Amino acid sequence: MKIIEQRLPQDYDKSFIVFQERGQFFPYQWHYHPEYELVLVTQSTGRRMVGDHIGRFDKGDLVLMGPCLPHVWVNDTAYINGVARQMANAIVIQFESDFLGENFLKIPEMEPVRQVLRLSNQGLHIRGDASDRIAPLMEQMLTMNGIQRLANLFCIFDILVQTSGYEVLSSPGYVQRTSMDYSNRINRVTEYIVNNFDREITLKEIASVANMAVTTFCNFFKEHYRMTFVEYMNTVRIGYACKLLAESSLNIMEVAYRSGFNNLGNFNKRFRAIKRMTPKEYRKLIEVAPETALAI
Predict the structure, then answer these.
(1) If you count Cβ atoms within 10 Å of the first and of the last residue's Cβ in the chain, which end, N or C, has fewer?
(2) Torsion-angle region of residue 101: left (phi > 0), alpha (psi -120 to 50) or beta?
(3) DSSP H or E segment with residue 203
(4) Residues 62 and 120: beta-carbon distance below 8 Å
(5) What is the pLDDT of residue 235?
(6) Kind of pairing between the strands at 89-95 and 17-22
(7) Is residue 11 packed enough to be buried (19+ CB in 10 Å), middle (13-18) or exposed (0-12)?
(8) Domains located in the chain, CATH noted
(9) Contact 142/91 with Cβ under 8 angstroms?
């Protein structure tokens, strides 16, 4: 499925975008933005696709996405056909990392925000109390100007850094992670995996990249990645496989091979375990992505 870059209009006198999307939406493609994006659905139901994640959304759905993460929100048929009792409605905030200057995110007070934004490169579904507190702040911003609007955005940042009520949506393999501001050691390991996941990487080999003994590396890896090295490799490979299934016409065998799996049976097993569907079902779901979608 072809991915396009889309932009929302920005007022010349404002440093970031607050936009309301509503009504019956004209056809939109699978797309991305160069900005960070926070999306609140205030009225609608349907299916959202963020990276290689596919899930349902409802009123109150709140998702934060990093730059260039492909996505689309698709209304249910009732909203597409105009028979729903209310029009679909969403509020979108978009901002660039340097919207307050190139050193803005580098100041010490913004370190917790930087951590949240790193995670948003995979898409974050914000839930519970945090979502309930953020929603009215976003609604208020539609009629705000100047410093009030900016103050609400900082309140949203503060809520995001304090919550653990979120779900990471897309797998690591779907996102090219070359600019992550982690320690040199973690950065080397991540970059090595991203550049070599399509072949076998032994524990001894990857441990040497981190300049560690194998046992020490295994403990280190699980602490920082919250999963084992093998589990992480599988999520990276399946994430890349989803990218190939969505963006190419390669057959399933070729997708498996290019994603680092030498055995089709193992590929199908790992894919189902991670995505809860077969590669064929995933491709079919992607290919029937609706003609009418939210432009967010």
Answers:
(1) N
(2) left
(3) helix 203-209
(4) no
(5) 86
(6) antiparallel
(7) exposed
(8) 4-170 (2.60.120.280), 173-287 (1.10.10.60)
(9) yes
Residue whose entry in the numeric block shows the structure tokens 């926070």: 38
- The Cα 209–Cα 72 span in angstroms is 37
DSSP 194: H
Going by DSSP bridges, is the β-strand pair 62-65/36-43 parallel, antiparallel, or unpaired? antiparallel
In angstroms, the CA 187 to CA 225 distance is: 12
Rg (Cα) of the chain, in Å, rounded?
A: 20
pLDDT of residue 230: 92
Which tens digit of pLDDT belongs to each residue from 154-193? 999 999 999 989 999 998 877 654 333 345 777 788 888 8
- For 168, counting Cβ atoms within 10 Å of its Cβ (0-12 exposed, 13-18 middle, 19+ buried), the class is middle
- Classified as helix, coil or strand, 112 is helix
Amino acid (one-letter) located at 209: V
Q: Hey, what are 269's tokens?
A: 């097993």
Phi, psi of 168 (to 5 degrees): -75, 125
Model pTM score: 0.72
Tokens 């490799």, located at residue? 233
Residues in contact with 105: Cβ distance below 8 Å, sequence separation at least 6, in sequence order: 97, 98, 113, 114, 117
Contact 180, 187 (CB under 8 A): yes
53-57/4-5 β-pairing? unpaired
Of residues 175, 184, 286, 187, the one with CA closest to residue 236: 175
